[in-house]
Amino acid sequence: MNLIIHNVTVFTNDDQNTVLENQAVAVKGARIEAVGTPAALKKKYKGFRQFDGEGRLLMPGLINAHMHFYGTFARGLSLPKPPRNFHEILRFLWWRLDTSLDLDAVYYSALVPAIGAVKHGVTAVIDHHASPNAVDGSLDRIEEALAQVGLRAVLCYEVSDRNGEEVRFRGLAENDRYIRKCQAAKEQNPDHLFDGMIGLHASFTLDEETLDEAAALSRSLDRGCHIHLLEDMVDARLTEQKYGADVVERLLQYGILGPQSIAAHGIHLDQVQMDALAYSDTMIVHNPQSNMNNAVGRADIFGLLKRGLPVGLGTDGMSPDVRPDLRTGYLLHKLALRNPNLGWEEFQKILLKNNPLIYRRVTGQPVGRIEPGYLADLILVDYFPPTPLTGENFWGHFLFGIVDAPVDTTIINGEIVMEHGQLPQVDEAAVAAEARKVAAKVWERFYA
């Protein structure tokens, strides 16, 4: 699509947080072609569709750097008995739910939050999927759901030894197949919406042979791994009991961590482990709402950032919208450390700078800025500032205003996927109705 978006205030998200009043952005195909005055762009690009932003804020779309789409079917689900700790949360809820999914459930559990992502200004997601009884083709079904909405994503299948050798083998094969599929698609179109990583659960459910095979696959495909790291001390305790090793040392030794890999959580890292991660340049993703919900602790994001690690922000399946996690994380650390001055610069960097950096590092795609050559992943926000808005104070507007503002229009890869709050390609009520039918079958298997 060729488009001129005019009558907008533009937040470019460049290094200076430049804010441009009453400007316009020209989009040609999937990329941003130019930024300038409305008169100049209308004169230069006469055949482009003109889209009146009506004074709204135009900014790069947001990125959710760690998500579990399949958690959708946990909504409203009651557990047979209350869990006493994180390991029991895994056993009583997540490991029973993922084994209850079939391919239809995989599809609808992705489609529902994909709609929610687009409606809340999230234009790209890095997902981590598990469905041990429906492994083969599961990533294709997620892609099919996201493509219906137009959402950009990196997908992976969670490999683990907890469901036996055959499921482990199928999980590795699914990652291999899907990554190769995406690589072939990107050779034809570098702006292709989808890419893949090698998904792994956590050290305490991964045997040596599995880590060897995952590392070999990572090297052969030149793709990093996406793994949970020390979300709870059960990871450290069972890794020591089963393998006689430190979690971080073990994963580094096998080549699982590194500059192309994402480690989610990192709550129980000590100083030595953080130093080792910094040396490896592994990407870390903070998930504060989920961590609070599971009562597993608080990651030392300040220690990680001081070491130069690229720390991003995800939701861990709590919501497709990353903005609630942004505010939650910002407040969590201030309260926990009893310091009202913490987090201002750090969370701005994590969400606005590091999440795009992580996505660019994983995929090679230029996302996260409004400037020529970048992908046109843009959101038009119903935010009309009641006080002066500048590059110097943008974060204050974001944290205490934009975070609550409705998203009017979402553009991904140069295509308008939501216009004035409507997704023309999706019947939301029909999707929800079908999802309820599928969920009923999932729940029947869950309780069996």
Structure description:
- This protein has 448 residues and is an alpha/beta fold.
- It contains 15 helices and 18 strands.
- The protein folds into two domains: 2-60 and 368-418, Urease, subunit C, domain 1 (Roll), CATH 2.30.40; 62-363, TIM Barrel (Alpha-Beta Barrel), CATH 3.20.20.
- The protein has helices spanning 38-44, 86-98, 103-119, 138-149, 165-188, 208-221, 233-243, 247-253, 271-280, 288-294, 301-306, 323-337, 344-363, 394-400, 428-447, and strands spanning 2-11, 19-28, 31-36, 49-52, 57-60, 62-67, 122-127, 152-155, 158-159, 194-196, 198-202, 225-229, 262-265, 283-286, 311-313, 378-381, 407-412, 415-418.
- The strands form three sheets. Strands 1, 2, 3, 4, 5, 16, 17 and 18 form an eight-stranded mixed sheet that branches.
- Helix 3 packs parallel to helix 4 (138-149).
- The termini are far apart.
- The model has no long low-confidence stretch (mean pLDDT 97).
SSE topology sketch:
Blueprint: E1 2-11, E2 19-28, E3 31-36, H1 38-44, E4 49-52, E5 57-60, E6 62-67, H2 86-98, H3 103-119, E7 122-127, H4 138-149, E8 152-155, E9 158-159, H5 165-188, E10 194-196, E11 198-202, H6 208-221, E12 225-229, H7 233-243, H8 247-253, E13 262-265, H9 271-280, E14 283-286, H10 288-294, H11 301-306, E15 311-313, H12 323-337, H13 344-363, E16 378-381, H14 394-400, E17 407-412, E18 415-418, H15 428-447
Parallel strand pairs: 1-4, 1-5, 6-7, 7-8, 8-10, 9-11, 11-12, 12-13, 13-14, 14-15
Antiparallel strand pairs: 1-2, 2-3, 5-16, 16-17, 17-18
